[in-house]
Design a protein that fits this description.
250 residues, alpha/beta, 2-enoyl-CoA Hydratase, Chain A, domain 1, six-stranded parallel sheet, 8 helices, 8 strands
Amino acid sequence: MNKDLQKSESGNQEGQEPQKEDKPSSLMEKIQQLGQTNVPQLSSDSSIHCLTIIGQIEGHLALPPQNKTTKYEHLIPQLVAIEQNPKIEGVLIILNTVGGDVEAGLAISEMLATLSKPTVSIVLGGGHSIGVPIAVSCDHSFIAETATMTIHPIRLTGLVIGVPATFEYLDKMQDRVVNFVTKHSNITEEKFKDLMFAKGNLTRDIGTNVVGPDAVEYGLIDEVGGLGQAMKKLNQLIDQRKASTEGLIQ
């Protein structure tokens, strides 16, 4: 009987091995396709979904394969799924981006700003260029003490723009970025434009490289902090939303 029992146990273990091999393969597919382990529909183990925005934000044009990118066509369906999934109560957005496509960045920012669920962003490393509107689009924003944010005018290339229509188009797009940032943060339009057009701060360029504490002082970001503080704040916002919802029901 002991031999039969051992055989049955070994048989069960052998039968379970293919299932164990399937999990890593599906996990690798998610990482390769979306850059994360869980898609919103499957986040049953936690009420908080983590959304990462890293590298360069890819928009209408595909970037070279050696570039580390965040594709906006991946993020937008995820944000729709997050909004529809009742199991997800809050979203943590982690940024370490050099910027990228302006319209793609603004599209992501608008979707984050209009989510009905609490959102908290944290800038780690850097949240440069169009990463600034994404960082300020959330209900509350954090920046690591050593992280930086580059604020500069919108430009297509390093060449001088000679066509008036092109300049006017870029100027209007720049106004969209300025209006969004000032609307969703405590920085004034005058101060933001001063940082954007400052000369001599960046090497032979126009713009400003803002370090963590300075970003808070200017009113661009709410607090200096790391992952622990961001999670604590997000849980507080979730509790506040639950309390207000229960009050309305009563």
